[in-house]
Design goal:
By secondary structure, this protein is of the alpha+beta class. The chain has ten helices and six strands. A four-stranded antiparallel β-sheet has the order 3-4-6-5, sandwiched between helices.
Length: 227
């Protein structure tokens, strides 16, 4: 993500991408063809809505079939899907705004990321890159999907979303990243929070979470480890 450099005395022209408006604008983002029974976004990608009952049933079915391995299955599936989600995001944003995603200003990238996840019903994410120089990315999500559906839990429940973030940012960064949830609304937190980093670095975090370490304490310990 870059900001353009302007030579002294040069005429400043508004960035073309900002003149395109919002890809996710409510009046144009989705179009439903009743005759065909399809809903597509403005890029032509077909969108399917899933009910809360379906998602509850999916969680129960995976739990019944996989037992203790269910969360690992959710995370693995999420990571694969997250990479495909990022690939489509990159293509749609680049085509709409007329330049590669990696050339977006950071503010535009973050705005599009928030709109993407919000419009797909996963919750409203906020990306924190303040520790990027330490090899850490933090994502805070308001109303994360499974935290809302489960209601109450003694352990974080948005493993699927953690996998999606891992796959999504692994694709965009070109590195194999992992993602661990550190707080969960279902556990009484005000929001669900996730930390992204290289897998080896995050290896001890699930045990820290299970033992009751807080989000900031976990970030402090991770930041003390060389990136």
């Amino acid at each position: 993500m870059t900001t353009a450099e302007v030579a002294p005395g040069a005429r400043v022209v508004p960035e073309q991408s900002l003149m395109r408006g919002n890809f996710f604008a409510e009046s144009t983002y989705l179009k439903t063809d009743i005759a065909k029974g399809t809903t597509r976004n403005r890029a032509g990608t077909r969108i399917v809505c899933l009910t809360a009952d379906f998602l509850h049933g999916l969680r129960r079915a995976v739990g019944d079939e996989c037992g203790p391995a269910a969360e690992l299955v959710f995370k693995s599936c999420g990571k694969k899907w997250g990479a495909l989600f990022a690939k489509r995001f990159e293509q749609e944003m680049s085509e709409f705004y007329g330049k590669p995603l990696q050339d977006f200003m950071l503010a535009l990238f973050q705005a599009c990321l928030t709109e993407l996840f919000s419009h797909h019903g996963w919750g409203k994410p906020n990306l924190d890159l303040s520790r990027h120089d330490r090899g850490l990315i933090v994502v805070e999500v308001k109303d994360a999907i499974y935290a809302e559906l489960v209601g109450q839990s003694d352990q974080p429940v948005d493993t699927l979303l953690a996998g999606i973030f891992a796959g999504f940012f692994s694709y965009l960064s070109g590195q194999d990243l992992d993602c661990v949830q550190t707080t969960c609304k279902a556990c009484g937190a005000d929001a669900s929070r996730f930390v992204l980093a290289l897998a080896a670095r995050l290896a001890p975090v699930p045990a820290w979470v299970q033992n009751g370490k807080g989000h900031e304490e976990i970030l402090g310990q991770l930041a003390a480890v060389p990136a």
